[in-house]
Structure formats: C-alpha cells, structure tokens
Amino acid sequence: MTIFLMSNPATLIARDLSLAYDGTVIVQDLTLAIPTGKITALIGANGCGKSTLLRGLARLLKPVSGAVYLDSKSIFQRPTKEVAQQLGLLPQNPVAPEGLTVKDLVAQGRYPYQNWLQQWSPQDEKIVQRALEITDLTQFADRALDTLSGGQRQRAWIAMALAQDTEILLLDEPTTFLDLAHQIEILDLLYDLNQREGRTIVMVLHDLNQACRYADYLVAVQAGRIFAAGDPESVMTAEIVRAVFDLDCQIFSDPIAGTPMCVPISQKAKNIARS
C-alpha cells in the first residue's frame, strides 16, 4: 500500500494573474484553474511565458497583479513550509552540490517537515525509502548524484519532489536534454504517479505529441496569455498550432495511443509535394 495516496487533493487556481521580470510583464491577466488529480501540460513557443507561469504558480515569482490561490487562499498569505507541504516544484536544470548522494538529495524533500522540535523521524525515513522505490533508485541510494546518467539524475530529482509528499507537482521541462528513451521513462513514471496516487501534475513540455499522449488537459500559452485550454482533442488542431507556433501542420490520430498527433509541414515537404 502506498504511503502517498492523496485523500483530499489541493486546488490551485490563478486569477487575473500578471507576472513580470525587471519591470517587463511576461504573463498578463491570466486566469487558470488547474484540474485536480489530472496531468496538465503547458505548451507554447519559446519565450511565451510557460516557465514564468509555472514559477508564479509555485510562489517563486510575486504577482504584479492578481493572485494564485492554493486551497482558496492566496499562496502568498500562507507560511512557506505549509505551502511546501502541499506543492512541490522541479525547476529546469536543477543543480546539487558536488558529491551529494542520491539518498541525501531525496532526503532534502523532507525539509518542510523539520523544525527544532521535530527532527528526522522513522516516518521521514519511510517516505524517503518509498520515493527511492517508486523511482527505481534504491540500488543507487549511496551513489553520488553526478555519477548517474541523465535519466537517473532526473529520476532522483523527481524522487526528492515525491519525498516532499505534496499533492501537487510542478515540473519545468522535465525531459529537456534527455534522449528519447529517457524522456519516455520519465513521462511514464509521472503518468504512473498520477494514475496510482491521484497526484495533480503540471508540466511544461515542448514535444506536442508527448503532451497529447500524457496530459489530460492542455494549456496553449501565447504572449503571456492563454490562447486555448482543454482536452488534447480540442486544443491540438491545425488552426491552434498555426496561431500559437506559427507552424503549418496536419493532425492525425496517434496509431498507438489514439491521441492527436501533430505532423509539421516544413518548407522541404512543401517543395517535395510540388515536384
């Protein structure tokens, strides 16, 4: 029996949210309710505001206006450790101190539960061991993180997020720089966590076909605003892809998953079709 089963999953909602870097507004007047217990994928062209939105949802970026609500209360009005017990974030390209072991990294996920009255407990140890098991890293627990493959390292960071034991997981491009086999490995792991434990997962993805295969809900972001949102069948259309990515494509049914499959139409393909 899993120790991570979510009985009362948290809700996460952005209302009229505007976010900025150095005075430049990146996300503007955006309203989004994250489907609870589902996988949501944020898609859009480079620089459209996907990662900025994720940072705003994670309380790493204070709104210029509007608010993010975690369980109906402004996320900035809640204590940091309380938020960290409900919401976990895996940023792009996370960095760990040289020589840190996998288990030590995963154990950092228990930090929100530690204080001067409550130090490391048998429950903490149990949760860390379970996170290692779920991510198939038990045999690497005492290995230095920097000696692992890219896919193994990414699993270790996900294990740390799992050890945080949150109802919501936010992941910024969790498959970046991984080869195709490791991308599928990570996405299968996240899908399994969602299916078995009901975790709400929000992730930024670049691969549109992977987003359609794994996500229940797609959010297409354009210039800091939501251009379209809904199930993959309603969002992954040739018209929306053209508007959001400035790319011509055809949409087919994935022969394996049955989900929408985007096939880009390149200039080379157009030239071949004409000849």
Structural notes for this entry:
It comes from Leptolyngbya boryana NIES-2135. Pfam families: ABC_tran. The protein has 275 residues and is an alpha/beta fold. It has one domain (12-244): P-loop containing nucleotide triphosphate hydrolases (Rossmann fold, 3-Layer(aba) Sandwich). It is 33% helix and 25% strand. It is built from 10 helices and 12 strands. Helix 5 (150-163) packs parallel to helix 6. The radius of gyration is 19 Å and the shape is globular.
In a nutshell, what does this entry contain?
This protein has 275 residues and is α/β, with parallel strands linked by helices. The protein contains 10 helices and 12 strands.
Observed structural traits:
275 residues; alpha/beta; Rossmann fold; 6-stranded mixed β-sheet; 4-stranded antiparallel β-sheet; 10 helices; iron transport; AAA+_ATPase; ATP-binding
Q: Report the radius of gyration as a whole number of Å.
A: 19 Å
How would you write the strand order of the largest sheet? 6-7-8-3-9-10
By CATH reckoning, the class would read: Alpha Beta
Q: What sort of overall outline do the alpha carbons produce when their principal axes are compared?
A: globular
Any idea what the CATH architecture is?
Answer: 3-Layer(aba) Sandwich
- Our count of domains comes out at 1
Number of helices: 10
What structural class results from the helix and strand content? alpha/beta
In angstroms, what separates the terminal alpha carbons?
Answer: 61 Å
Measured by DSSP, the beta-strand proportion falls in: 25-35%
Flag low-confidence runs.
1-6
List how many beta strands DSSP finds.
Answer: 12
Mean of pLDDT: 90
InterPro entries: AAA+_ATPase, ABC_transporter-like_ATP-bd, ABC_transporter-like_CS, P-loop_NTPase, Siderophore_ABC-ATPase
Subcellular location: Cell membrane
Pfam families: ABC_tran (PF00005)
Protein name: ATP-binding protein of ferrichrome ABC transporter
